Amino acid sequence: MKQKLLYLFIVFAIVTGALFQPNQAEAATTKVYWDGILMVPGQVGKIKVVKPINLWKRTDAGLVFERVLKKGEQYRVYRYDNLYGGQYGLGGGMYITKMAGYVEYKTPSKAKLKELANAEGTTAPSGNNSLQLFPTEATPTLTGGKVLSQAVTQLAPGIRKKYFDIDGAIGAQNVFVIEYDGKTTNVGLKTELAKDQLVGLETTSSQANSVEQNDSYHVVAGVNADYFDKQGQPIDLMMMDGSIVSTSQTPASELAVLGVKADGKAIIGAPQVAMNVSVNGQQSYAISSVNRKRLANNLVIYTRDFNATTGTNELGTEVRVKIDSGKLNGSETLVGTVLENVTGVGNAKLNKDEIILSGHNFASEFLQTVQVGDQIAITTKFTPAEWNDVRESVSGRYHLVKNGTLQTIKVAGVAPRTAVGIKKDGSIFTAVIDGRSTDSKGLTLQNTAKLMKDLGATYAMTFDGGGSSTVVTRELGDSKVTVQNKPSDGIERSVSNSLLFISQYKTGALATIMPVSNVLEVFEGESYTDLSVPLKGIDQYMNPVAVSGNGKVTSSILTTTNGKQVVNAKPGMYAGVVTYDGKTANIQLKVSNGAPTILESFNKGILNYEATSDRAKSVSVQSVTNDRDGSKAIKLVYDFTGTTDTSGAYVSAKTKLTISTPAKKIGMWVKGDGKGNWLRSQMVDATGKTVHLDFDKNVNWTDWRFVTAEVPTGLSYPLKMDLPVRYMQTEDANKSNGEIIIDDIQAIYKD
Hints:
Radius of gyration: 32 Å
Mean pLDDT: 90
Distance between the termini: 56 Å
Strand order of the largest sheet: 11-12-13-33-32-34-30-31
Number of domains: 5
Number of helices: 5
Structural class: mainly beta
Strand content: over 45%
Largest sheet: 8 strands, antiparallel
């Protein structure tokens, strides 16, 4: 009996030793402790159980339950991967699944890693490897809540996306941070205007994606920026590409502006600008503003950045100037030649590489002395002088942190927020806090200030918030940016301008592959020929690289028989590997029992669907209760009478139905109308190839029937079904009107 107990103790020690017991490395003379836990080489972080959670052991057959971990227990973490929805590796094959609110994960500081490295006689990990796509970082300590989970993604060298799930004092908060380290070359910040002009609005994602890009210039992230008026014009100072686009309107005591210098360094302040124009090196006159409404006695500069025309009335003089050299900034003089001088007309056309000097009353009298062919020079000087070197700038409203000191902001209200901050080391970061939802409440301005300071800002200010708060990023392997947060309007709001993060690393060779989807659904006992998945390609700078073809999937649950891969596992989640061009990536295989997947039951209504047609007198869709099983269905009503050539009535999906796993057939229940029409569907594969499915070329029945159509092999998944139902007639003599009812559109995986 004693021998048996000893044996069980030894087994337990082997299984749990990596979790709880010191190893040989821990017995070193110099020990390094972090939050009361002894650190060991290879440790990347630690985890604390907040709520009881399962401990799992990974095996070839999948996850095996070990026990339930109790609240308060702490463990070292040696790795993290995306398998099984994301898991922390505790050593000894043991894992905890990443679940918000159940575990608290922290990473050691660089100083602590260096201390451990010194104790072990090795070098500390740099943490800045450009190929490390999901780096680990220390969890920030917040005064207004606790970080329940975080995720970090390297978007480009020197640029990271961070997400924080926070249990805040007033409720849940979802925070999205984009950070540029302020020192990595070939990356930086630029500003962008809606529709390339001051008048008008455009979404942040559209602004970012409209920037002209090539293999050496990439937009990797962006946020909304300045507040704007009803015309869509940003309220205060904006500079683009080294030139003033608009001057400020807000008093200096209330002005907040972010500026980026030529060397990439950022500053936050309340700059004032003085501008003057001289003619032939003699007469000089003060300029009132750039691209603002011309008020009494004003002399205003208008550029093509404003609009198509100046929008002025006839009560003034407008001088057209061709730009010969220089820009409107604090370190250059803009020099130009007068092309024309017009009085009493107004609303002059604005052209590229020209400016219009527009004056009223006294300013008009000054401009009337200017002659065609005269040389004009415009000087610009900022106060403080450091703003003379600024090349990009956007404004906001409230200073949150100044020189490391929290500012007092007596403005009530909890809302979504967008803010920008500068750290002591020169790094620049933006933060978008979602709001007005149960997932994320939003913050007051004062609590936004606290958050920015907690995240390291020595200077910080707000951009426009509320429904405008938006963050976009170019996800790994993608060529365009997409919205990452949940704007409170329910859709992305159009705004006046944006702040973008730019990478100028030239696209290189394929370095990393990623499956388009991290989960591949397969079916128990089913056989597959060359099981594969579509991939995204990434180079060493996180730029997208075109991938030709799919990646081959292998797994311990796939047994090769007669040249086919047979799924030899019960339903569950299993580990797999994707291989392409000598490179590999992890993927999860979800084994299902082979039952069809219902793509659309229509039980939640038909808001996602609309009726479209070709050569039809009328077409419509209705939600109905069917007489087959009493559930909801969709009715397609059409009238082809009196038309010529091929007529079609379609059920069009606003959000396309997705088929992620290779299917053998598509099926649906149809109550026919006996009119002999042609029943089809249309979808596209991952390469954009259009696929037509034929269910029946002669719907001559009037009862309910289950119809199927074969899905062609060799398609790239996922498939997107944009027209689930196409009801057509090719013969003019057979044109009629009628209606059919459709229910339970489904993907079928087994014969």
